[in-house]
Amino acid sequence: MDYSPLMTLTAFLPLAARTALWQVPEDEVWIVERHRRFHRALAAGRRLAVPLLDRVKAKIDLTQQMLLWPPAPPEGTTEQPVGDAFAAGDGGEVEVRMRILWRVTDPVQAAYQPHGPNRAIDDLAAATLRHLIADMPQEAAMTSRTAFDQELTTALSAQAGQWAEVGSVRISEVLARPAPSPSRPVPAGHGTAARPRS
């Protein structure tokens, strides 16, 4: 009797026992590490993995994301959040409420960002607004909303290519609503007001 096929099957049984079938949902990419280093990116579908060696570092959502600025208030509260204030070129202040739509284009790079794309986009938006509003008077920032949105979108898209932290995403839409800040105007030459943080 030839036992070679049986012996071959027996040899592969331990390996088969160590493998698993992972189901990656649609619109997601799973970043898998092996020995604490990047191994591969798993697209949607059923994927084979070795549980004893492979671990999922991050599950990256590929759907369109929305960044609200300031963040929406907790459910059940009536208090409206205050937008961030920036110094205009004439010394006044402009309060900005903003919505940014974005999508991850490089899941591997996004998985290895220290604070994630959302935080990087938030920092980029703050830096862009700071320079944009500083170059215009308060009235111009508030009355030309369409032009303001266009300039902000162009500036954000251009800067995104230079910021390594935002290189993994594509910004598709920016909608900003500038308004006069209720706080005391900042004297010209004193720089930009600090962005309040919770």
Describe the structure.
The relative contact order is 0.16. Strands 6, 7, 8 and 9 form a 4-stranded antiparallel sheet that branches. The protein has a 3-stranded antiparallel sheet with strand order 3-2-5. Strands 1-4 form a two-stranded antiparallel sheet. The chain is elongated. The protein has 198 residues and is of the alpha+beta class. It folds into 2 domains: 4-61, no CATH class; 65-180, Tetrahydropterin Synthase, Chain A. Helix 3 (116-134) crosses helix 5 (145-160). The model is unreliable at 184-198 (pLDDT under 50). The protein is 31% helix and 32% strand. It has helices spanning 4-18, 107-111, 116-134, 138-143, 145-160, and strands at 20-24, 28-34, 37-42, 45-49, 54-61, 65-69, 84-87, 93-104, 169-180.
Notable features of this structure?
198 residues; Tetrahydropterin Synthase, Chain A; four-stranded antiparallel beta sheet; elongated
Beta strand count:
9
Structural class: alpha+beta
Taking pLDDT < 50 over at least 5 consecutive residues as the criterion, the unreliable ranges are: 184-198
CATH class category name of the largest domain? Alpha Beta
Overall geometric form: elongated
